[in-house]
Design goal:
With about 375 residues, the chain is of the alpha+beta class. It is built from 14 helices and eleven strands. Strand 1 and strand 2 form a beta hairpin. Helix 7 packs across helix 10, helix 8 crosses helix 13 and helix 12 runs parallel beside helix 14. The longest helix is centred in the last third of the chain and has 32 residues.
Length: about 375
């Protein structure tokens, strides 16, 4: 078993998180020697509500699998792209991941003259039960492979795009963590999220790659706290500080999402943060533009901005979006910079964001209307 830490996780817990990532119903760990890392990893998964069992021999595991259930087998030291692991677990029949060619690392188990198994497979519960009952002192993973090959199991030959890394190699654990982090898909649609928040979050995540599990657990709570205090800070210190906290919260939330994607830790506050972010922005705008005289330009512009942004958020276009598309993060960034120049700057910033969101709404409406007007 590798002793390297991947994305801040000890190898046993990293493997457990990969199983958790694909939404497995139950985890069974077969370990002849029970290490502290295995025990701590299992304890954390159980605390999160995951059903997990530790056994010392394959024979002890035989009765823990239903014959008809799909079983994801993780053995060895290979790390593959998370999307590949998801696809494997959802495969309709027994399948193994392998490498093909004369230059394949000989440490991987030889299947035949062409392929070597990397230690990851999706098998049927009945096959695992039968093998566990007769494995004896042989390697459990190797015996599972042999049993699968005899039944002409399906094979998926991995390519370089699958981010295959063997963490037993020197320095490979760090490369695996960076590859997993890079593979986390971007969810931002507008320019603020795509070109300001997301790049900043990825830089921080790469610098803090050894503490990504802590970021996955703590970043959503920190982002929530920042959004809660943002309106209070606006009331006491001005709109610039309020929007600075909103932007900081958005970046913190993005760091947490990246950490979850790289480590496989469960996501937290997924349903709360988007709504809280919207509420915080509305409150910051309302406090900053509350009318104190006869000039209603700022409150009117703020009201229109909120309406346009709300309509834009409801529209979900298909295909690629233009680089200039407005979003909450982008509008917050514009208003933050504009507010540094006083009341006139804030007014101009509000007018600019209103125009920007109006143009974005027009583009979104046009894109969604195209199939109906052909």
């Amino acid at each position: 078993m590798p002793r390297a830490r991947v994305a801040g996780l000890a190898w046993p817990e990293f493997q457990l998180r990969q199983v958790q990532r694909v939404h497995a119903m139950h985890v069974v760990v077969v370990a002849g020697r029970v290490s502290r890392d295995i025990v701590e990893g299992l304890d954390r998964l159980r605390a999160e509500g995951m059903s997990a069992t530790l056994v010392r021999t394959p024979a002890d595991a035989a009765d823990l699998f239903h014959p008809d259930e799909a079983v994801l087998v993780l053995s060895g030291a290979a790390v593959v792209d998370a999307a590949r692991l998801d696809a494997l677990f959802d495969a309709p029949e027994a399948t193994i991941l392998c490498l093909r060619g004369p230059d394949v690392d000989p440490r991987y188990e030889l299947i035949d003259a062409r392929d070597r198994w990397i230690g990851i497979a999706r098998l049927q519960g009945a096959q695992v039960r039968e093998t566990a009952e007769v494995v004896g002192k042989w390697d459990f993973g190797s015996m599972l492979l042999r049993a699968a090959v005899r039944t002409k199991v399906q094979r998926i030959v991995l390519t370089e795009s699958d981010h295959l890394i063997d963490v037993a190699e020197p320095g490979a654990a760090a490369r695996a963590a960076r590859a997993l982090l890079s593979a986390v898909a971007m969810t931002a649609r507008g320019w603020g999220g795509r070109y300001a928040i997301e790049p900043a979050a990825r830089i921080v995540a790469r610098l803090a790659i050894d503490v990504l599990p802590s970021a996955a657990r703590g970043a959503p709570w920190l982002a929530t706290a920042l959004l809660v205090v943002a309106p209070i800070v606006t009331l006491m210190g001005g709109i610039a500080l309020g929007f600075a906290l909103v932007l900081f919260a958005a970046t913190t939330s993005a760091i947490g999402r990246l950490a979850v994607g790289a480590t496989g830790c469960p996501a937290r506050l997924v349903a709360v943060l988007p709504a809280l972010n919207t509420i915080a922005v509305i409150l910051v705008l309302a406090i900053a533009t509350w009318p104190h005289g006869h000039d209603l330009t700022q409150p009117f512009a703020a009201t229109v901005l909120i309406g346009l942004a709300g309509l834009g958020m409801r529209l979900k276009p298909t295909g690629a979006a233009p680089v200039w598309l407005a979003d909450i993060a982008g509008s917050a960034l514009i208003l933050f910079v504009a507010s540094l120049f006083g009341s006139i700057g804030l007014t101009l910033g509000l007018l600019a964001t209103v125009a920007h969101n109006f143009a974005s709404l027009g583009w979104l409406q046009n894109r969604l209307s195209e199939p109906l007007t052909r």
